Sequence to fold (1500 residues):
Amino acid sequence: MASETRVLFRHVDEPGLASIETYRRLGGYRSLERTLKELEPDELLTTLEESGLRGRGGAGFSMGKKASFLPRGDMDKFLCCNADESEPGTFKDRELMQKNPHQLIEGIAIAAIAAGAGWAFIFIRGEYAEMGDVLDRAVEEAYGAGYLGEGILGSACRVEVVVHRGAGAYICGEETALLDSLEGKRGNPRLKPPFPAIQGLYGGPTLINNVETLSNVPHIVANGADWFKGFGTEQSPGTKVVSVSGCVERPGNYEVELGIPSRELIYELAGGPPGGREVKAWFPGGSSAPVLTAAELDLPYSFEAMADAGSMLGSGAIIVADESVSIPQLALRTARFYHHESCGKCTPCREGTNWTVKMLERVISGEATPMDLDIVASVQDNIIGNCLCVLGDSMAMPVGSMVKKFRDEFEAAIEAGKASAPRPLDESAADTRPVALGVS
Amino acid sequence: MTAGERRRLVGSMRPEDAERVPELHEVDVPDDLRERIQSAMSKYPQLRSAAIPALWAVQRHYGWCTPEGMRQAAAVMGVTPAYLESIATFYDLFRTTPVGHRQVLVCHNISCWMRGADDLLRAFCEAAGADPHAADHGGATSEDGEIFVKGFECLGGCDVAPMASIDERYYGPLSPDDARAAVEQLRSGAEVLPDRALGKRQAAGGPEPEPDPRVAATEAGGSG
Amino acid sequence: MAAREDVTLVVDGVEVTAPEGMMLVDAAKHGDVEIPVFCYEPKLGQPVGACRMCLVEVEGIPKLQTACSTPVRDGMVVYTQTDQVKEAQNAVVEFLLVNHPLDCPVCDKGGECPLQDISMGWGPGRSRMIDPKRHFQKPIPLSPLIKIDRERCILCYRCVRFSQEVAEDEQLQLLERSASSYVGTFDDRPYIAPFHGNIIELCPVGALTSDAYRFRARPWDIEDSGTVCTLCPSQCNIKLTVRNERAERVLARDNSAVDDGWLCDKGRFGYQMIASPDRITEPLVRSGGELHPASWEEALEAAAAGLRAAGARTAGIVGGQSSNEEGYLVQRILRRALGSPHVESRATGGLPASQRAGGQGDGGALRQDLIALSLPELGASVRDLDGAESILVLGTDPIHSMPILDLRIRKVVRRNGARLAVATDHPSALDGGAEETARYEPGFAGGFLAALAGELGADGYERADGELGADAERIAGVLKPGSTVIVCGDFEGPPSSLLACARALRAEEDGAGLIEAPDGANGRGLREVGCLPVAGTGLSSVDQGLDASGIGGGLADGGIEAALLLNVDPVRDFGAALGDSLGNAEFVVAASMFENSSTRHADVVLPAEAYAEKEGTVTHPDGRLQRLRQGIPHPGRVRPMWEVLAELSALLGDETGIDSAPEALAAIADEVPFYAGITPEEIGGLGVRWQDREAASRFPRDETGAAGTHGARPQDVPTRGVGTLSLTSPAAPDDAGLLLGTYRDLWAAEATEKSRALRFLLPRQTLELAPADAERLEVEGGDEVEVRSNGSVVRARAAVRERIRPGSGFLIEGLGDAARALRGELADVVKAEASE
Ligand SMILES: Cc1cc2nc3c(=O)[nH]c(=O)nc-3n(C[C@H](O)[C@H](O)[C@H](O)COP(=O)(O)O)c2cc1C
Ligand code: SF4
Ligand code: FES
Fold:
């Protein structure tokens, strides 16, 4: 029987863990103290880099390496904690922030010191109002205890932390869109290069990391890189909080060592599909990841194994669809999401997602021909690689994979015709809004 | 628009109708709103970062981002109202049309959908008396103008799917009966679905397992 | 700016050299490779990479790259024709057409539409799209001048970026998100801003169209003709769209040395005045109190007779729109044929009252100052702004006096991080971008400059104390010696203190300098061809004549009997006083496009040419000679004015021998040493600065006299108000008055009145005052008030403005009322019962 390996989730339901007293009683903020007393920023960076900690927000890039890209020397540098968590199926950061905010704040303070950033912003999605309040309280406590602000614990270090609430836009999770949004603009992704590490927030060097990534930092500082590498696989060291949802008995967050068989996560921890049904398809890394099939359930759950299987670990969110789920309907839900969330800045994403939704609606309402499936497929190909950021790809890859792996179901849907036709889902509401313009 | 209407519209346009940066003394901004915006402005290295906080302040004050409210915020920030409207219309949580002051966001994304989100949304609409189609396409307010119901993209509550965010708090898993109960409670002002509040939920993996030896080993001098 | 060195790259097998860092799209052109673009427009600033039309393959990079945002590196190998690239281009075009209506046959853009061309050249050529496209109300007015068709919009953001990052009016925005995004304004208000017409030219589709041009012509039955707009000193280079011998449209003719390819709306839509039904198109002669059509012979005979009679008691006033040739001939008629020294072309910047002593004053010194101000090494070019580390805007608001400079300055501040200081009496549109602003009393530029000169350590000047000193110190703190450009306007008082500042800021040879925005569009040219009472052609020494107010006085007391007026509306340009005094004249000849205060008392009226009908030259405020080229034929019996003036001169006994516009220019070149040898061919399409020509060495620098050598004549330094100058200074004197200033609003112009499209912009007379004064005087914004001072009364609507200096009030000049007479006066403000 598989079991969790709780590091970030240690004491997760300890009463009052969100308060600074409890957190400290359980050993909290010692890593920050140690950082200030014993460690030079460069030592810190090496430790983080050696630990092999990979970003938990989606890209899986080495955290230490990214931090080391920031130019040295004194200039205004920034740290942004990406707490926008909007990838469908992902809710790990939510529980980490709600239940153990100080673990994150300690990680932020240490990472900021390592990167030489005097300002840190926690960009939390506006929907997480409840967790925003928890963070506000925790940040206040941390200031009160001298862990944040001017001259931390009597040292020369300064880290100002601001909790910034978003207002509802998935794209703001994309790091450069996050920066624009934080600068008070529409959340449009920026061209890269320049990369945020060189020219980010307000034009200054900026380190951007996910909540879970940063929550790992105090543990690595406390116990060392080797200790951290003692968990997980060589290329995916550490534990991972995995959000499992959809058709499973016990949806939720499970912290496991990277590399455990996916089947154990889905069946043993999350209890598998209800009513003894079989898994039909599953997203291994949020809805942006190409779907895998039941045949792929025994793959180890790691960055590399998922990549080899043509998908990705992404944000570490498994969404399970069992036999009872219609794949064309699933494809439409997926496409609809990206269509709604596209920032609209670049053509292939804006028009491609919009066109895909229209075609899938026809597929489902039976107003399509098998030839339209080829168009759906080729439109996905036309999106992939041609967009400004990867939001477009994030629809094209899963939708493309569904059409490829379940084409018969799509053809069947077309056959079945209008019988199963749902209410039309086009965004007509939004489209007609401006019609009122200027008329009186 | 007919040619005639168009001509009339053009004829009615005056240079002073263009919305430039409002002169602060020409707009009277409610004190609390002004204070909220100014304190937000002081929190960031650059003033415009306060755009979203300012719009939140406007929405909290007026219930939605009214044109007048956006003008007031623009005057305090020294930007054009157009700039703020452009931000307001980009983000899903800002409303630029009047809505009910109690808000129910029902997740209709994959995980919730697979667990009955459509029925849940319909149940909320029927109970509140809001048009389900409209609710799923930008939102709808109940006839009595009280409750705003909106089908929303993934709220990050898939572990309690199907779920909803009611007045900025998460609840789930919800049945159509829960929806009816919630609407009742919203109307009566009673606490909403106390036993469905996500805040009270324990980790899915159940009570703390025996710590992994590698973790236990560090507990002595380790960190949270 | 440091020149970047060239690198070599290979595009589709062709070796191309380009400066390092240049964007790939532009570099590819060097190898005759065209890469299609939509959103890329360098004029708008950094590339945004939004449309994805420009994707190309760069060796070593797996993903396709956007050529618009990829700087070239040495050894780079690029492919724009591979299958992968073609597929991407097809894909993008197909995506763009998903929501684009194919209504090309009824679209104004048809035939000159980038989307059409690129679909042809780079598109898949077939459509797989059968789903409904998005629908918008179409087309609806975005402003009285522009219609927007949102269905055609391809969301390239050009227009929105212009509003946000070039004009910075931020009225035009993108609203909503995703495929529902659309371009709009706050609360559906009209987009009304001085430069907004540029978005028509920026739009790569038919989404934004000119209301004045809609359905007027099709690209295949028009011809282009390049000339220069003379509606203001910006002298932007323009292309006239001509159809059936009519100017139907004005487009920018990008000249980075002048306009960066932008136009203000006056220049873009003002062409309508050319075909105005009010045009005077035939000579008129007054008989029996009425003006009657006459033959040219009759008219010129009559004109000659009248002027001959007055002889040396004739005054000539040349309007700012006149060409160098016209100005030259008028001053020549006065000085040579009539022996009169009284030639004026400037409303302000004349002799300081202190020296005017009945019109006769120390003109020699003023001439020396003017020479010193025009010293080649002291003059900055418009391009010099791009390289300047700091800019001082002094005593003028470019948005009104020289609009295109406003955009230029914004660009330099936003993109090059130049530091801006603004010191004006009237609030400036540039205040927002300025690091420091100082607001001095109306008309006190000279005093402020003296204080600034002291602050900058100019010899002969002392540091002022009190708030004036503090303000000067703040401003000086922003300015970097050796790399500062001063942008100033014609202002009251002698320019010596300005000179002192300019010199003090010119550390060494390079960089720093001065750009004067004159009141008149060709103010500098007219000054250099001799249209000043204190200086003749080439700023040569002359018997001093009367300046504008002197002429007014002369007309009143009979010292002046006749007036020759060219392209001038005395009341609008010089104020009611001069306009009224013309009533006393024995004889008036007015050359004008329209009936106005110049024709009211005229005995002979000569129909004047519009700029689009002229051959000739003008001189840009930075010394660039530019060519006016005739784009359309003359209406009615209008004739070239140079020809008419040459004939008049001959009739008055001075045979000029000038038989063509180029010959007129040649005559100028003979008399203006620093224009020596200049020809229309040399000037060409983009113009040439005389300072850059060899002949510049013949500039009369040795005659700069006192001002030229040390620039200090402390007795010129006004002392009024010293110590009370600051935005922060307490509200005005408790006595009821306001110290009045005036400014010439961009729209207070004949072009606004006579162009149907612009008429709605004609300003109402407005009294701008500070909140404190509004309270003190118990007026509120919108109130109708009367502004009075010794006899002159102006009715205005009150407008309360935070950025007005307490104690001052401002009225608009050029509206034909008595506003100008009130400048510098302490005036009473009383509420008037509102008129409907
Ligand atoms: C469309 C899009 C959405 C994203 N959303 C999130 C998000 O919600 N949270 C997050 O941490 N990273 C998100 N990312 C990844 C971020 O761009 C970035 O890689 C990450 O925050 C870096 O932090 P990490 O290295 O710690 O993972 C998203 C990326 C894309 C392209
Ligand atoms: S209106 Fe024209 S310029 Fe503006 S975004 Fe659309 S296509 Fe681009
Ligand atoms: S031109 Fe390069 S992306 Fe638009």
